[in-house]
Amino acid sequence: MKTVRSIAAALMLTACAALIAAFVACTFSSCRHKELYYPSSSTAEVRVKFDWSAAPGARVEGMCAWFFPEAGGKPVRCDFTDPAGGTAKIPWGAYRVVYMNNDSEVVQVRGEDSHGTLELYTRQSTLLEAVNAQGNPPGANPGGEQVVLAPDAVWGGSLDGVRLERGDDENAPRTVVLPVQPLTSTVSLEVLNVENLKYVSAVGASLSGLSGSLFPGSGTLSAVRSTVPFAAESDGKSRITGGMRIFGLSANADTGRTLTLYVILADGSKHYFRFDVSDRVNNAPDKRHIRIVIDKLSLPKPIVNGGGFHPSVDEWESEEHTLKL
Known about the structure:
By secondary structure, the protein is mainly beta. It is 11% helix and 43% strand. It contains 2 helices and 21 strands.
């Protein structure tokens, strides 16, 4: 009886083993013939490289780039701590890219929703911020232009037709090279042969007819005329110098440009001198580097010992001048 039972048990074990072997063989066979599925990635790995060859003297701490889909929709903003660039994940598609340094302490950004509305601008200011004071002397801004701060250096540009296509290898990184250009210009001022400069305690300047903003996607300047104040300094003898960066000249049909010099004397009296510099500015040979030179300016001597008419320190005396090429 034990022999029969043993034989039956052995047969049963053999049958089970055969079934298991057949199942495993079938499983392996089906795996060999079934294609493996890897889900497709919705984004490309993009190596963004900023080309600084056209801006060798630039010094920035970081960069940012907006990838605007050509078909419309929300842009992708990427920020890089390395001015040379970095890696970002960008959805597949065609883009218009706008980029700039992201370390500015003065320049602000608005209109980031679309390529055409992205705008760089600065906050409002006052004319006397040029002499570390507040307010606008009466008559110093007859056109009623908005007064805004000068921007600091902006480097960047725009590039259309950037296409991120899947191709044969979706996992291979794509490279996008973005050439960097200066997006701001400079204005320099030099006033020579200034009389009585030793009596000056503070000096500053402003220039009218400028653009208060820039649309970097198209390079378009604002048609709204703005006046921008800037610092100046005296050598205490006969020379005043100053300068600033600007987005550019206003695109307004009015091409008048006025340079105003603000002077505070040692006795507290205040004077501003307005110079029509339209010819000098509009016909500058290099619009990226506008140079204004004024030769000869006579400043009043401060009133001492109470002699003569002494205007209130809250009043400003003015003079008008026209400079021709």
